[in-house]
Amino acid sequence: MATQSTNIKVLLAKLGLDGHDRGIKVIARAMRDAGMEVVYMGMRVTPDQVAQTALQEDVDVVGISILSGAHMRLISRLTKALQELDIADDTILMVGGTIPEDDVEPLEKMGVRGVFPVGSFTTSMTEFIFQNVSRGRSAPQL
Amino acid sequence: MTDGMKEQPKRSLSGLKVKPVYTPDDLANTDFARDVGQPGEFPFTRGPYPNMYLGRLWTRRQIAGFGTAQATNERYRFLLDHGQNGISTDFDHPTLTGYDSDHELAEGEVGRLGVAIDSVRDMDDLFLDIPLDQVSVSLTINHPAIVLMGMFLSVSEQRGVDWGKLRGTVQNDSLKEFHGQKTFALGPGPSLKLTTDIVEFCTNHVPNWYTISISGYHIRESGSDAVQELAFTIAQGMAYVESALERGLPVDSFAPRLSFFFGCHNDVFEEVAKYRAARRMWARIMKDRYKASKPESMRLRFHTQTLGSTLMRQDPQNNIARGTLQALAAVLGGTQSLHVSGYDEAFDIPSEEAMRMSLATQLILSHESGVTNTVDPLAGSYFVESMTNDIEEAAWQYIGKIEAMGSGVYPMKSGILSAIDSSYIELEIARSAYEYQLCMERGEQVVVGLNRYQSEGTQKLELFQFDPEEEEWQKGRLIETRGGRSPAEVKSALSSLKQAARDDKNLMPPVLEAVGALATEGEILDTMRDVYGEYVDPGVF
């Protein structure tokens, strides 16, 4: 049921040592099937590596999955790294995993645009991306 | 297609066909004596022991670990006081992946999802006032298993406990780390070598220890279906047997000390069939293929953990009902020990209240439900026996594929290694995980509270409270350990270890020397990574 290409490019990664990668691989397939270009960096990458890759690959969205409980520390380092490379404003940052309700607002204050706790549907994430990615490249002009 | 009114055949959670009614005709090709037999007798379909729970109830073994060794030690003593009779350790991610608590990648994860262990001093704290010759201990560790096992042996020795009296298990299932759990450190070949080192060492020196807990649980949590869980677990078990045979160990010397670990999902009869099929397959494989002669080498014994991935954030109390059904299936399937996952695990590691509920679930099943009054109560059910046959047949297809990827005298060993190299197993599991997710999202698979029968409002749970100060405390302790040892002794122990690795010797003796010299887990693993290289996630989906 893959839709046609959307020109949206997404970078997915797992930060830290967390090994729970079932969810992010499901999401990677769902985004691919929704017509997005998906770059999956795999596990055990650092916030700096994510920011560097986001810059090099010129992605619209960065999606991070953390089920280790280390999200507050790691996401704060990632948002700083994105700011240092001056790409924080035009990169939509999404975070998923075992994120307690009380951490959602602090994450949003750090610059996270969408928080998707475990149990979220992939369609809620793809719809979120379609609604939030603008810069005129989501629909190819004919 | 011709009859639009006809109902669609039902399918089990893993897609096996389920008929509306089963009759003796469904078992026309089943010979009861040959294929089912008696409990405690080959092919052990009905259970490893003749009297099963009439002789001894399953071991209630709730896994626990968080923060520092002292904090976890307190939880162990709480669980032992509340009806638990075995200890199962959960290590944090830095420990599981072989990094010290002050490594860059460890930031924020020290003691977070398990207990932090950096040196033998922490292992000593973990088991403070717990008699190691009386309580059975399960060390849930894989690629660095040789290091943690070495620390445990070292602590036992210091306390004057004879290694022959130690009872317990080390998970030591290195192969599943490449597609389940994912706490790898080294590549498939070197990690299989270390697994086999432990098998060899314990066979000779720690005779009552279970040397590998061959694990389907993590494969299932990664999204596989029951058929894949069964097939990949058995295939990995065969690879371990072949690796030990290649080492020159006689099959009956080590096979009785292999155990298994499965998950339990929601489809009660499919799960029961999975456990029964696993026992029959393993018995025949060990007897016919690997020429085992002791019954202990053929009978499969297993631990069960109800699956965390079935637990929902929505209406978390519903998870108590899920845990009860899954635990029932595990008991009807003849498990030897059980962990019921905490109902709050979709939020965080379980609270004490949730663990108390999990233990109560086990006690109610044991003492109130009556299911333990007779052995293998579902034997002879036309449906359950048919399902057992079907799941076995489907699993053999996968095992055949993996065997075809290998070659030589030990094709399952080489087959698994190439199936890992090509990411075949990982991609098969990822496909199942995606299909299951789509079924839930489309509402084809009902999940109460998630996609049907949602309730208004949310319940607020009292969750586990993690103390972030513990990471700093642990780092301080690590620095103190490094400061209080002889650098020359550490250096010499690590260089003997490196030489032994290069010479392809059994690494347990040099690891024992290194942990005795207070070398840290990270230092020992770094030495191994120097020789063998570090495994990097291929990032496939």
Helix fraction bin of chain B? 40-55%
Strand order, main sheet of chain B: write it out.
3-12-11-10-9
**What is the structural class of chain B?**
alpha/beta
Total beta strands of chain A: 5
Strand content of chain A: 15-25%
Unreliable runs of chain B: 1-5
Mean pLDDT of chain A: 91
Q: Supply the CATH architecture of chain A.
A: 3-Layer(aba) Sandwich
Mass-distribution shape of chain A: globular
**Assembly state of the chains shown:** heterodimer
> How can the largest sheet of chain A be summarized?
5 strands, parallel
In which order are the strands of the major sheet of chain A placed? Answer: 2-1-3-4-5
Provide the β-strand percentage band of chain B.
Answer: 5-15%
User: CATH homologous superfamily name of the domain at 11-60 and 171-441 in chain B?
Assistant: Methylmalonyl-CoA mutase
How many strands, what sense, and barrel or not for the largest sheet of chain B?
5 strands, parallel
Tertiary shape of chain B: globular
CATH class of the domain at 11-60 and 171-441 in chain B: Alpha Beta
The largest inter-chain interface, given as chain pair and residues per side, is: A-B, 35 and 43 residues
Total count of domains of chain A = 1
The end-to-end span of chain B amounts to 35 Å
The CATH H-level homologous superfamily of chain A: Cobalamin-binding domain
Domain B12-binding (chain A): 7-139
Pfam families (chain A): B12-binding (PF02310)
GO molecular function, one term (chain A): metal ion binding
Protein name (chain A): B12-binding domain-containing protein
